[in-house]
Design a protein that fits this description.
The structure holds 2 protein chains of 2 kinds. Chain A is of the alpha+beta class. In chain A, helix 3 packs parallel to helix 4, helix 3 packs parallel to helix 6 and helix 6 crosses helix 9. Chain B has a domain of 145 residues: Rossmann fold. In chain B, the strands form 3 sheets. Chain B has a 5-stranded parallel beta sheet with strand order 2-1-7-8-9. The two termini of chain B are 32 Å apart. Classes of the chains: A alpha+beta, B alpha/beta. At the A-B interface, helix 1, strand 13 and strand 14 of A face helix 1, helix 4, helix 10 and helix 15 of B. Bound molecules: iron/sulfur cluster. Iron/sulfur cluster binds next to helix 13 and helix 14 of chain B.
Chain lengths: 336, 375
């Protein structure tokens, strides 16, 4: 059954999205910036290096524990810029509103966008608004684009991981995706699981100041840590091995995932960064992260290897090994 | 051995201790083949990377315990037919969406405009019916004895609330008759069953008594953590080596001999045993659940007049053999080449508990681990 139509799957951020991109967008729009397949394109501009990126947000519910679509639209784009080491400067925001949307809801969303932008030190310099008839959209869709400046000497990219590198993360895995799912499905666990949505650029700056040889930074959003590491493994043609007992996972997230038959490794994050850098610098990076409020639970979760290029594996608690593939199949529709 | 918390059940040191014991026990003994009946066991075994750690003489075979996988093509086609009816919402578990029927899948029908909703429980489907009084809501009831009581509960709730537009297509299955069918088919040589923890919390360990005594087949009910499974295997090996065949319970924190009688009553209140067709195993007497006459108005097949559908099976798909434990996924010519989770040819590849999917997703093909082992 070769697909002839777009399925919900194609928006999962996992394998199907990857296939959609490589089948249509990459070949038809090919150029060196796009082909690099990084979170933002880095280009020379009048002596500066600019990072440029865009992302759309279609989350349901639009307000969730720990944030809403407005703050998320700022954090997501700020983070995409931060992943190339850039200092985020300006954003644009496009809104697609569905006829019938509550204006007070819109106000709440725009207010928290403004607050998030202030906190992240970025200015929203242009915007656009369209309204579609009822039923032709789902409340509100936001597209943000952002520009940042990359400091001299910083060169990050998914193709830079090297055998012998360490893989770090700044905190617990799967919080955002699980929070969205629980609030959408009305599953209330003991206490409410909060999204980790947060701007990561100051944390990134701290890491880059402490360590001179960072190879890759990536935020594991849709598709989760598993899919993002698979992308890095295939871009860099290396193997990556995770250590199960080292993965920081909140107990309530683990519990919710267990009930729903999901794996936190595939759940979206909106305030996490994966750091790949030489083992020798891992200690310094962990120290720098743990001193930052968004990195208190930073951990070393894996290593880069020469064997099994393109493949992510997991050493389990009981000493077995298994594959950690990209997200495949029907995911949790529209979690970020 | 008493194990209390989930973390203990994942404890690496303890696992190595049991593995060492198991190796010692099996040294110099004839090979043994155990079947884990349940898909949740299968997935847990793969997720924990347990198979390659076992002594080479202990072989694990996956059985027909994935509810989506054993659903007959005809039933998938029926689910798709319901989705094609005007003003009808089909509510189903996510796994079922992508299972190919004779021509299409529920996911493809949804992309074409059919109203198919993914739900997490039958109660969600009742809520859908309440929110959409001008639509018919059909819940596709798939699952074993763990799911059937919750569906029965949803039906009784819909009844109490006077909801008129809710019905269930019952393709539920019960496990013990399938185990007997496997054993009497004769083409499968087995040394014991690793029985599922969750199903057994409902049906009680006594449900396997016939299998153990009539077929002289050791049965151990085990939980789903890697250590539960290891412990269960060790208990199976002990039984086999001492020449016994009885039902033992490893999963004592969840399972009793009688099971959950309240759930059994609820299930029996709404459903009665009925013959059912299993993918791979064919028709098995009293292995399904049909609505009792008093509840007929909740039965989707009576509420709608479902025509006879012409079912087409992909002859190349070997799911049936995989489900009977006579073929390993790697031996299916389509595995990984034509059949992938993205483009599945059979339910064993789609379902989150399917054996082919587990091989594809989790099996590690590193040089130190040999996955090409044959069944
Ligand atoms: S690999 Fe695909 S076609 Fe072959 S048995 Fe498994 S699901 Fe069926």
């Amino acid at each position: 059954m070769k697909e002839t139509q777009v399925l919900l799957d194609h928006g999962s951020g996992g394998r199907a999205t990857h296939e959609l991109v490589t089948r249509f967008f990459a070949p038809l729009l090919s150029n060196p910036f796009l082909d690099a397949m990084n979170d933002s394109a880095v280009m020379d501009f009048l002596g500066d290096r600019l990072a440029f990126t865009t992302d759309s947000y279609v989350v349901d519910p639009v307000i969730f524990p720990g944030g809403n679509i407005g703050s998320l639209a700022v954090h997501g784009t700020v983070n995409d810029l931060a992943m190339s080491g850039a200092r985020p400067m300006v954003l644009t925001a496009g809104f697609i509103l569905e006829e019938g949307l509550d204006l007070s809801l819109l106000e709440t969303i725009v207010r928290s966008m403004a607050e998030a932008a202030r906190e992240a030190g970025v200015t929203v310099v242009a915007g656009d608004t369209k309204v579609v008839p009822k039923g032709k959209g789902d409340k509100i869709f936001i597209t943000t684009a952002g520009v940042g400046i990359v400091p001299p000497g910083v060169s990050l990219g998914g193709q830079n991981a090297r055998p012998g590198d360490a893989v770090l993360i700044n905190g617990t895995i799967g919080d955002h995706g699980t929070a969205i799912l629980c609030s959408r499905e009305g599953l209330s666990m003991e206490g409410v699981i909060q999204s980790d949505s947060a701007p990561l650029h100051t944390l990134v700056a701290a890491i880059l100041t402490a360590c001179a040889h960072v190879h890759v930074l990536r935020d594991p959003t849709r598709g989760g840590v598993a899919t993002t590491l698979n992308e890095i493994a295939s871009q860099s043609r290396v193997g990556i091995r995770l250590f199960e007992e080292a993965l920081p996972i909140r107990e309530d997230v683990a519990g919710a995932c267990e009930i729903l038959g999901l794996d936190p490794l595939y759940m979206a994050n909106e305030g996490k960064v994966l750091v790949v850098l030489p083992q020798e610098e891992a200690g310094k990076a962990l120290d720098a992260m743990r001193r930052h409020p968004l990195g208190r639970h930073a951990a070393l979760i894996g290593e880069v290897m020469a064997d099994h290029p393109g493949r992510v594996t997991l050493r389990t608690r009981i000493g077995g090994h298994r594959i950690v593939d990209m997200l495949r199949g029907e995911p949790l529709p529209r979690i970020c | 051995m008493t194990l209390k918390y989930v973390d203990e059940f994942r404890d690496g040191t303890l696992a190595r201790t049991i593995l060492a014991k198991l190796k010692k026990q099996c040294a110099g003994r004839a090979p043994m083949r155990f079947m884990e009946i349940c898909g949740t066991h299968t997935v847990s075994i793969f997720r924990s990377g347990l198979r390659p750690l076992l002594p080479s003489t202990v072989e694990l075979i996956s059985g027909p315990g994935c509810p989506v996988c054993v659903t007959a093509s005809e039933d998938i086609d029926k689910a798709i037919w319901f989705a094609s009816q005007p003003d009808t919402i089909v509510a189903t578990f996510g796994d079922l969406l992508r299972v190919p029927g004779s021509r299409t899948s529920l996911a493809q029908e949804r992309a074409q405009g059919a109203d198919v909703r993914m739900v997490y429980s039958a109660m969600d489907a009742v809520a859908l019916a309440e929110e959409n009084p001008d639509k018919e809501v059909v819940f596709i009831g798939i699952g074993f004895e763990t799911t059937a009581p919750t569906v029965a509960a949803a039906v009784t709730m819909a009844n109490r609330q006077g909801i008129q537009n809710f019905s269930v297509f019952s393709a539920h299955k019960v496990l013990p008759p399938a185990m007997e069918a496997l054993l009497s088919s004769g083409d499968l040589r087995l040394d014991g069953f690793l029985c599922p923890g969750h199903v057994t919390t409902v049906i009680g360990a006594k449900a396997y008594e016939d299998v153990a005594s009539r077929y002289r087949m050791p049965c151990v009910v085990a939980g789903f953590e890697p250590l539960d499974i290891l412990h269960g295997l060790w208990m199976l090996v002990e039984q086999r080596l001492s020449g016994e065949a009885r039902v033992d319970v490893q999963y004592r924190r969840g399972v009793t001999w009688e099971g959950n009688t309240a759930a059994q009553r609820l299930m029996a209140q709404v459903f009665r045993p009925a013959n059912a067709v299993w993918r791979g195993l064919g028709p098995i007497a009293r292995s399904g659940l049909a609505f009792r006459d008093e509840w007929a108005r909740f039965d989707a097949t009576q509420r709608f007049s479902v025509p006879t559908l012409s079912v087409r099976e992909d002859p190349a798909c070997r799911c049936g053999d995989v489900l009977r434990g006579v073929l390993a996924p790697l031996q299916c010519p389509l595995f990984r080449k034509v059949c992938t989770p993205q483009n599945p040819k059979g339910p064993c590849m789609v379902s989150s508990e399917g054996t082919c999917g587990a091989y594809f997703k989790y099996a590690y093909d590193g040089p130190d681990l040999d996955l090409e082992e044959k069944y």
